[in-house]
Amino acid sequence: MQELLNTIRGRFGDPVFLVALAAALIAFAVQSGELGTSDTQHRLQSAHAFWTGEPEVSPNEYPDFGVRGRGGKVQSFYGIGQSLLMLPADIAGTFLERLPAFKEYNGNDPAVRNIIVSYTTNIFLNVLTALVCFRFLRRLDFSEAQAAAGVLALLVATTHLHYAQNMQENNYIFLLTFAGLSYQYEWLVSGSRRALAIGSAAFGLNLLTRLTTGMDLVAGGLFILLAMLFEGARGRRLRDRCRAYLTVAVPIYLVFGFLDRLYQFYRFGSFFNTYMSLVARETRQRDPSLPLNFPFTTPFHEGFLGALFAPAKSVFLFDPLLVVATLVVAVGWRRLTPSVKAYTLATWILLLMYMAFYARYFVWAGDFAWGDRYVSSVAEMAALLAVPLLLRYRGQLGRVVWSVGVALIAIAIAIQFASVAFWLSLEEYQMDMLGRSSFVVGLRFKNIVEFALGRVDPFGLANAVDDPWDYQHLTSWNFLPFQLQHAGQAPAWVVQLTLALWWAGLVGLILTLWRLRKSVARNGPTPTGLQ
Fold first, then answer.
1. pLDDT > 70: what percent of the chain?
2. Residue 516 lies in a domain
3. Are 250 and 241 in contact (CB under 8 A)?
4. Domain residues for 9?
């Protein structure tokens, strides 16, 4: 028993364990019990269809969702990646939902199955992301304190927090991309072919989630190349390292690319098309007035500049930490290590690639989403080093840069906390139905104040939203205890229990952060970077 207690005490002094625990509690605190969007619900249905035989697309959803595939069968058109991720939780949630204890509740919202899937999957992703990012930052020679601060900033000061509640593919893509970067960089440092294979497999697995993540594996290769160049690798040495990299990475990428194409053939009878082309063809058949280039109908400058400056979608408004990263890198460029320079350039190039690719898409920002969801994950990657670099070079950057950086970090945290307060569709409804301001961030803070003050119909949507479920979901704090209480379908003791657990989670998070601060204060940096 004493040995067990000593082990537990040791764990609570380990920064890695504490960072992982904090990540789990952050994800736990922001769950609403719902998946957040219909996109994720459709992907969950695909997971459900894998093992139950149910259709991937309900007949009454077509043609609003789905596309006809082989044999005229209506198929979901999303990649298989996130569905596979949710599959274990879907199986567990389905069996739990069928227990006699939930007989009276079954059929209500939030559904038991959705609660199980959202909690387990999002906590799992958050913990793994924290561990991978902490590991990567340590590899870049940041101290434990700087790495821990960087991970926590990612989790609560970027849109990563929002997508830990609203389960689009973003955080899964982020995790796989960062695992790819981390392990491939380990290969560069240590020469481990195993690490290179793991990193390449993580990048390849991304292809099953969203085919456009092929840009992520290109950025991963660019990061490795730039790191070698900044370290002075030239000539034969550079060629040998590139050859060794390609020998391992390319075959793995081809395997995952083949699996994606095989799934495409299984559904639609072709190895060479994409769901986007199939949806475009069916949509034009139903509406011949659409242009031939549908869905790429937005003027390039509108989508590209919109991702940067549009008040409803600007990456700088929704991820202000990106401004901090840009400021610190611009002022301190000459002080940065070669690997940090390589990472910064690679992530910014990747961000520009995503912006350019989606600029002409008819919903270039992802439609109903907090910010521009197509570029959010990449913006988080580019912003990851903001806090670690600000801490590392505090003395050299000067008081002005430090003060501006701290102020922007505080603003970023406030924006991300606001992002999970209500369902993401709230401001979209207000803009579409009431003509409210497109400055979404400002509108969200106004909504929080109005709701907190208990104004009658604070959002003005009582006579505008026809769907009762939507209105119920919009008019409650977007956390599970409050959603259960507002819906009035769960027993009072269940509501009280979930509320007590929610508050306990918040207290646990505060204690974990306090313990983490004490733990990292005792330790200095351990050089582990590229030699």
1. 95
2. no
3. no
4. 2-419
